[in-house]
Amino acid sequence: MTKVKTYSKNDRAEQLMGKRPGDAMAVDLPCELGFHCPVCKYENEVSGMYDERLAWSEYKGFIWCSVCNRDYPSCLCMPDVTRAIEIFLDSVEMAQPKET
Fold first, then answer.
1. Domain assignment of residue 63, yes or no
2. For the chain, what is the mean pLDDT?
């Protein structure tokens, strides 16, 4: 029997930020870019292997934790505060409607 994956649902994140394109291919995993779940406590890298519990969320500007089954704003997942601020501002900019 195959276990069906269930993902968190955040209607407000979808409404405010929108969804990432379904056909987009991620080059790097969040863990490879220094992101950590803001709730789980773990090492990002152990014996040269990245902890891959984080994935890019279906919502723009969010990261999904497979352990918590929650989507978190990516800026909350960045321990470096200066970088977190830039990530937050980039996310807000990305969510703004583009003028044509």
1. yes
2. 83
- Per-residue pLDDT reduced to its tens digit, 51-83: 788 889 989 899 999 888 899 999 999 989 999
Count of structural domains, the chain:
1
Q: Which domain holds residue 69?
A: 11-95
Residue 35 is assigned to a structural domain of this protein: yes
Among left, alpha and beta (phi > 0; psi -120 to 50; other), residue 18 is left
DSSP state letter for 49:
E
**The pLDDT of residue 100:** 64
Distance CA 22, CA 99 (A): 23
CA distance 9 to 2: 22
Rounded to whole angstroms, the Cα distance separating 80 from 78 reads 6
**Residue 5 lies inside a defined structural domain of this protein:** no
Is the CB of residue 54 less than 8 Å from the CB of residue 79? Answer: no
Q: The whole model's pTM is what?
A: 0.77
Residue 2 lies in a domain: no
DSSP classification of residue 11:
H
